[in-house]
Amino acid sequence: MGRTIENKQEIVADLKATLSESQLALVINYQGLSVAEITDLRRRLRPTGTVCKVTKNTLMGIAISGQDNWLAMEELLQGSSAFLLVKEDISGAIKAYQDFQKASKKTELRGGVMEGRLLKEADVKALGDLPSKEQLMAQIAGAINALATKVAVGINEVPSSLARGIQAYADKDGSAATETDAA
């Protein structure tokens, strides 16, 4: 029994809602994957805030029509397609997919769409090589902490060097006074 029109409309509405929350959409050829393997892929992607949708290309085509930031995906809608819709951690999602692909060797990345631009496999790989949001925040925090430490040392150094200068002047003045007394 096929899907009813209402059922298809629900699927398209769900796809539109998920796309509106997504930053990146990856299209993969999932032909040859078992249900257990797709479940494994979904499990790996879940911590990164990514949803894996397996749906007909025609339904995804209807969902992206009229949405300028997703129209480039039309080029990728062919064959057996699964859509990885990334909401949060882009590089984490790409790395999770790459790990799955290395393990299963059954999927093929066709490309992706981000901010209205079509991404080829090399572009997606470059995005995956970027540090995660947590790593970037740690690097920024480390840089801020290093800067604050340098400022604190510099501020602390001003009175110390002033005190050493006064001490040196006092020592010099004291030695000049003792020479005058001796003469």
How would you describe this structure to a colleague?
The chain has 183 residues and is of the alpha+beta class. The chain is built from six helices and five strands; from the N terminus they run αβαβαβαββαα. Strands 2-3-1-4-5 form a five-stranded antiparallel beta sheet, sandwiched between helices. A hairpin with a 2-residue loop joins strand 4 and strand 5. The longest helix has 50 residues. The termini are far apart. This is Large ribosomal subunit protein uL10. One of its GO terms (biological process) is translation. GO terms for molecular function: large ribosomal subunit rRNA binding; structural constituent of ribosome.
Write the layout of secondary structure elements.
Elements: H1 5-21, E1 24-29, H2 35-45, E2 50-54, H3 57-64, E3 81-86, H4 90-104, E4 108-114, E5 117-119, H5 121-129, H6 133-182
Antiparallel strand pairs: 1-3, 1-4, 2-3, 4-5
Family: Belongs to the universal ribosomal protein uL10 family.
Protein name: Large ribosomal subunit protein uL10
Keywords: Ribonucleoprotein, Ribosomal protein, RNA-binding, rRNA-binding
Beta-strand share of residues: 5-15%
Which runs of at least 5 residues are low in confidence (pLDDT < 50)? none
In N-to-C order, the SSE pattern is HEHEHEHEEHH
Described by strand count, sense and barrel closure, the largest sheet is: 5 strands, antiparallel
Radius of gyration, whole Å: 31 Å
Percent range for helical residues?
55-70%
Shape: elongated
Strand order of the largest sheet: 2-3-1-4-5
Report the span from N to C terminus.
Answer: 119 Å
DSSP, total strands:
5
Count of alpha and pi helical runs: 6
Provide the residue-averaged pLDDT. Answer: 85
Oligomer: single chain
Class by alpha and beta content: alpha+beta
